[in-house]
Amino acid sequence: MAVAIICRDNVARFRRGRGWVVPVAPTERYLIGTSFGGRLSALEPDQFPYVMALDIRDDDLVKDVVRWCVVSKGVQRIVALHEKCLMVAAELRDELHLAGDDVATTLRFRDKVVMKDALRVAGFDAVPRYRAIAAGDVPAEPPWPGGRWVVKGRLGVGSTEVRIVDGWLAVNDAVAELARIMPELEVEEFVCGHMYHCDSVVVEGQIEFAAVARYFAQPGEYAPGGVAGSLLLPDCALRARILRLNHDVLDILEMRSGVTHLEVFHTPDDLLVFCEVAARPGGGGIDRIVERAYAVDLVECAVRIQCGVAPLLPNSNPRPAGHFGVLGVYHPLVGDARPLDDATLRGRGVLEYVHSRRVVPGAVVHCTDYAHRVIVEGESYSDLERRMRKIAAAVTGGTG
Q1: Helix 298-306 and helix 286-294: axis angle, to 10°?
Q2: Looking at the domain assignment, is residue 281 inside a domain?
Q3: Cβ pair 290, 313 in contact under 8 A
């Protein structure tokens, strides 16, 4: 079975220690990617003999190449993990009558208004107040009382396309700014509280695996020289509540088969409020801590499902085999970050360390653009957090 792989990330994302995670023969792999920033440097020609390097941001060009692969090479499946490629893949599947997530399904996991509308219609109450909005269509008065507001692209990706503003007048400026890069926007109420994420593997409508983690810092707070990351939750009442919410959301949005990444707020008054959900693995090393804790590779599961192959999962949803977290430290605003030395990492439960040089000079562009990514193990959940804060302080010069 021939497969077209639309790869907007570094191709190394598809490689593991035991090899590449695409479950078809190398001669059946057609990779559509980009050479920008060295994203094809990890390619092994014998594993990917057919590579088409192009401007991966040009959706029409990507579609033309995939159509050629389907018509001329007999491609039957399309693999896409990056959120900005999911709609392209879905549109091609509908057009070419291929198996996999169609446009209707993908929209429920891409368009933030469509997904919240579907939840509201189904009677799901844990959704913040929201409305679609466009440049030139901002009402003079706010649609509900509030002091802080969130403006984001309906098809936006990550925190880079989100603006949190104080006062309704500032919404106009945020809408005007974001409308230059994306025409379809939404405004929603600001929700106070810690943010958590739930990462799932769904097979034929059943959640076969799920893991819950707390973000080390609020995703919207990323900045040059700052920190981010996630800590996997142990068994506890809050984890069980988030798993139930995740189940309800995926059931309402009719996820059939795939890997999902849900984000939810836990408010100071102990409420859970839905943020959004995506039909792809979480980024920034989330897959690494999930594999450490559960022996489940979310990226491999997503690729296998999109190839029509059963994911590799344990017989039952296991408890985490330890306490694991990922810490990300961003590049400074000026210059580049040197690799961390042994003295910074030694004795702090570090299992993996990856150093990345800045691809684009200047400010942080994406919330996972880490200079340093560290996988940490703790003896307990509190010990894990303490170790992560110690490392963060050692790198940034703060106090741990």
Answers
A1: 100
A2: yes
A3: no
Give yes or no: residues 245 and 365 share one domain.
Answer: yes
Q: List the beta strands (DSSP E) in the chain.
A: 2-6, 15-16, 19-20, 29-33, 50-53, 75-80, 130-133, 148-153, 162-166, 185-189, 194-203, 206-215, 227-232, 258-266, 272-278, 323-330, 350-355, 370-378
Q: What's the CATH number where 70 sits?
A: 3.40.50.20
Of how many residues is the chain composed? 400
Burial zone of 202 (CB within 10 Å; 0-12 exposed, 13-18 middle, 19+ buried): buried
Question: Are both 145 and 35 inside the same structural domain?
Answer: no
Instruction: Identify whether the C-beta of residue 28 lies closer than 8 Å to the C-beta of residue 2.
Output: yes
On whether both 354 and 234 belong to a single domain, the answer is yes
Q: Which CATH number characterizes residue 168's domain?
A: 3.30.1490
The partner residues of 186 in beta bridges, in order of sequence, read 132, 152
Distance CA 96, CA 102 (A): 11
Residues 6+ apart with CB under 8 A from 329: 225, 226, 227, 337, 370, 371, 372, 374, 392, 395, 396
Lowest mean pLDDT among 21-25, 66-70, 141-145, 373-377: 141-145
pTM strictly above 0.90: yes
Q: What is the CATH number of the domain that holds 364?
A: 3.30.470.20
Question: Is 392 part of any domain?
Answer: yes
CA-CA distance, 332 to 176, in Å (whole number)?
28
Closest C-alpha to 196, from 152, 233, 247, 234: 233
Structural domain for 69, as ranges: 2-100
State pLDDT tens for residues 129-141. 999 998 888 888 9
Number of domains comprising the chain: 3
How far, in Å, are 113, 129, 130, 349 from residue 119 at the CA level? 10, 12, 12, 41
Contacts of 79 (CB under 8 A, 6+ apart): 3, 4, 5, 6, 22, 89, 303, 306, 307
Question: Which strands form 185-189's sheet, in the order they lie side by side?
Answer: 130-133, 185-189, 148-153, 162-166
Structure tokens at 361: 């000079």
Is residue 112 a part of any domain in this protein? no
Distance separating alpha carbons of residues 2 and 7, to the nearest angstrom:
16
pLDDT of the residue at 76? 98
Same domain as 392, residue 244: yes
Residue 158 is predicted with a pLDDT of 67
Instruction: Mark whether 213 and 269 lie in a shared domain.
Output: yes
Pair 229, 214 in one domain:
yes
**φ, ψ (nearest 5 deg) of residue 28:** -105, 10
